Amino acid sequence: MLRRVASAIPSLIGVIIATFLLSRALPGDPAVYFAGPAANAESVRQVRESLGLDKSLPEQFVVYVLDLARGSLGTSLTTGQQVMDDLIQRLPASMELTFSALILAILIAVPLGVFAAARPNSLVDHFCRGAVTVAAAFPTFFVALLLVYVFYYLLGWAPQPLGRIDEIYFVAPDPVTGFYLIDTLIAGDTEAFHGSLAQLVLPSIALAMFALAPIARMTRAAMLTALGSDFVRTARANGLAASTILFAYAFRNALLSITNIMGMIFSFLLGSNVLIEQVFGWPGIGAYAVSAVIASDYAAVQGFILMMAVIYVLLNLVVDLVAGMIDPRVRFES
């Protein structure tokens, strides 16, 4: 465990350097942006000095690293608050959306992949391959706009796509976990729970479509490999029930490959939130990052990328631990 944590340190150092350089490559001059359209050259120069942008890049990088060592990601120019506070405040909204989409994708894709592999070239297999192709063919923002048009505008079944809860009819729960579904249950407010659940349905479906294809493909491929193995043929020769062979032997062995891809898909989903949050007015870190990029808010962009990198590293550590629990040979070989 300690060795895996230590191996992540060079990656984090590389991310810190890359985020600093990439944020400086953003188009536009933040000093001009924040000085305003009526500012003269002297005003722009004063703003640039106050932001520390008049220093050389090495000097700015040293200041950035010293701030990181003190646990500070800097101050956002757009909100005027600490970037760390902004991210912590918005992260639960993105995590709730990502977890909901991932759970929905797993509930659909894993059984679909298992039964498609159990009956190759059957109707279920053809449906699985067709569904995977369709899900992978459409970008997430297109699916999101299509869902809004059909279920909100045409049918009127979904609430207006603005935020995590309709504050005209419901009161947002006091933050405990930051997850509205959980916090409304803790507060015992079932009406707010249903209201927040209704707001979550369409963005979760749009985001789950993105994860559906890789999970179903990986499940089907891993199950086909497991079902063609010698131990499965031996189990069949010994007369074991088909359901026992499918779930107790084949699926258990395929689970390692499926788990390994989950961490990567979760990270991709968290990154894809940028588009979904813009469509649904979801107040997560994705919408925050888009606003920061448009305003050339260096500190906010750097903080967002660094947080995503840390989450990605932690997810990989969790996946490694879970893989070791599923298959002890992983720990032995490592």
Number of DSSP strand runs: 0
Largest sheet: none
Please trace the helix and strand order, writing H or E for each element.
HHHHHHHHHHHHHH
Number of helices: 14
Kindly state the mean pLDDT as a whole number?
84
Which of globular, elongated, flat, extended, rod-shaped describes the shape? globular
Percentage of residues in helical conformation: over 70%
- Secondary-structure content class: mainly alpha
Radius of gyration, CA atoms, in whole angstroms: 24 Å
Distance between the termini: 11 Å
Poorly predicted runs are: none
Which band does the percent of strand residues land in?
A: under 5%
Structure keywords:
334 residues; single chain; globular; mainly alpha
What does this protein structure show overall?
77% of the residues lie in helices and 0% in strands. By secondary structure, it is mainly alpha-helical.
What would you say about this model in short?
The protein is built from 14 helices and no strands. 77% of the residues lie in helices and 0% in strands.
Describe the SSE topology.
Layout lengths: L1 H23 L5 H6 L5 H11 L5 H13 L13 H36 L4 H15 L2 H15 L25 H8 L2 H38 L2 H8 L4 H39 L4 H10 L3 H29 L1 H6 L1
Helix pairs in contact: 1-13, 5-6, 5-9, 5-11, 6-9, 7-9, 7-11, 8-9, 9-11, 10-11, 11-12, 11-13, 12-13
